Amino acid sequence: MFVDHVTINVKAGNGGNGMVAFRREKYEPNGGPAGGDGGRGGSVVFRVSTGLRTLMDFRYNQKFKADHGQNGGIKGMTGRGAEDRVILVPQGTTVIDDETDMVIADLIEVGDQVVVAQGGRGGRGNVHFATPKNPAPELAENGAPGEERRVRLELKLLADVGLIGFPSVGKSTLLAAITSAKPKIGEYHFTTLTPNLGMVKLSDGRDFAVADLPGLIEGAADGVGLGIEFLKHIERTRVLLHLIDVSGFEDRDPYDDFLKINAELKKYDPDLLKRPQIVVATKMDLPDSAANLATLKQKLAKDTTLATPPVVMAISSVTHEGLTPLIQKTVEILDQTPAFPVKGVDDLQKMLLTDDQPAEADDFEINRDGDGTWVLTGAKLERLFQMTNMDHEESTLRFARQLRGMGVDDALRAKGAHNGDLVQIDDFTFEFVE
């Protein structure tokens, strides 16, 4: 089964907890703090693998977790860091944050990888909190939580040339004639249900990849037929071979077919019309093809649909007439056409390199639930809470000082909180004290 888009959940590992410990060696009963740091949590990493062709492996396995770091030990020993969880994906996979629709990475080359969820750092042990005023602190941090995300994976075939056109115009037949691919071929519409890839090898050692995309029909960009499922695979191609049946066997106007297919491309993405097209007149071995081709050329000469006028070539995949000139012309145009960027990646890079970044959310928000409890939320505040070890009084007092430093106390008073009111953070509830 060809699977080219999935949505999965990834969760990085939490950092290990720091430890509260003291040296109790012989002759040193008050040896000072000796609690070690927690280890780093494992990150979730996507890496390109040449052995994969589809996203089928993610069809039934949609949750991926990395291991947590180990807790710190006695005598200042740091816990072991967890190994990263490496997930292999095929070349041409685009990783998108499902919540924000931002492109995280476009993984094209072998060895490309990206950290999708960062593992949490280990919490600090009590050796870090010793001061002259408090030489024996009973204070340590919990490990930071690992990132959790829901991401979409979209596979866009890495093909230099895309074959487009109405069903039964001869795309699969052409692919079989110029490559060693073995697509399904039949005398009925929608023979091709999934994209097929093939390599064209030239005598001078050059080669290029060709993708036979399932037949488009009018309305494909709006979800009609199979076209919408595979239009995205055209995004990576540099040259489009637009196959048009000029035999008259289907009782369709070849020029009208040309306009309808390009209208669907424009509706999906107007930039697709900037790609060079070669209009390939197929089935030239049939009787009426020559006359229909002459009429098509006359109409195309006046057409302004594309950014550059299309090259028109005639072939017969059955007799192999015109295949060699078509391949040579395709290579010639490929050499002159650079790769087109994938939408979203450039915008992401620009944002990372400039100051035009989304404004950060407030450190905390205050709401009140139905029973009068004040509920504190916010990424920074919740992270501080998760890294606080409430089993030790000094850790709890430190957390209270952090809240006061963030302005939580003043904000609660401004909202109308009074002495004795309940305040909740996550699953922890305490009284507000003036």
UniProtKB/TrEMBL annotation:
NCBIfam families per the UniProt record, alphabetical: Obg_CgtA (TIGR02729), Obg_CgtA_exten (TIGR03595), PRK12296.1 (NF008954), PRK12297.1 (NF008955), PRK12299.1 (NF008956)
Localization of this protein: Cytoplasm
Protein species of origin: Secundilactobacillus pentosiphilus
Recorded coiled-coil stretches: none
Protein name as it appears in the record: GTPase Obg
GO molecular function terms listed in the Swiss-Prot or TrEMBL record: GTP binding; GTPase activity; magnesium ion binding
Binding-site residues for Mg(2+), renumbered to this chain: S172, T192
Annotated family: Belongs to the TRAFAC class OBG-HflX-like GTPase superfamily. OBG GTPase family.
